[in-house]
Fold this sequence. Notes:
By secondary structure, the protein is α/β, with parallel strands linked by helices. The protein contains 6 helices and 7 strands, in the order E-H-E-H-H-E-E-E-H-E-H-E-H. It has a 5-stranded parallel beta sheet with strand order 2-1-3-6-7, sandwiched between helices. A two-stranded antiparallel ribbon has the order 4-5.
Amino acid sequence: MPHPKILVIPGSVRNRSHNARLAALAAKELALADADVSQISLFDYILPLYDPDHDVVSGPPPNAVKLKKMMAAHHGIFIASPEYNASVSPLLKNAIDWVSRVREKGEPAYAAFHAGPFALGSASSEPLGGARGLLALRQVLELGCGALVLPEQVTVPNAENAFDDLDNLKDARQATALRSLARRLVEVAQQLS
Length: 193
């Protein structure tokens, strides 16, 4: 398979979000690595706060089903996740929780998380660059959903000063790490497809 389909998801919908900028840059690097890239915004998949009672009575909301189908249609996923109180953003965690509940036509649990590898990145104004949030996200994806998450990840500390006027990373090591992670995601996605 020459061009794996890779989905890029920013875990924030804030205006000028550092992670939306990181996601856009990851999408560019993935395209340069010969991936067929789709980038979405969770703003287009508005979901109520996850409630198991709602799930039992009404089933998953339509946007959860759409997001699950979008994830399952790709060979790999890159998530740029902000860190909230050393954990995952509520928006991203809620989306993961809802998607994890969607089962269609006898699918196994967590089917969307088994479609391909995940790669993680974070940009934060904090000195650790969102590393604690990525640890929490990795736990949710790997242990909670059974996803394959690449061991490599990208963290961008002091993100308010990390991007140039063209939204490229100023730091050559960070730029190289993102490029390498994009290539690795494409490579693993090809191997597993």
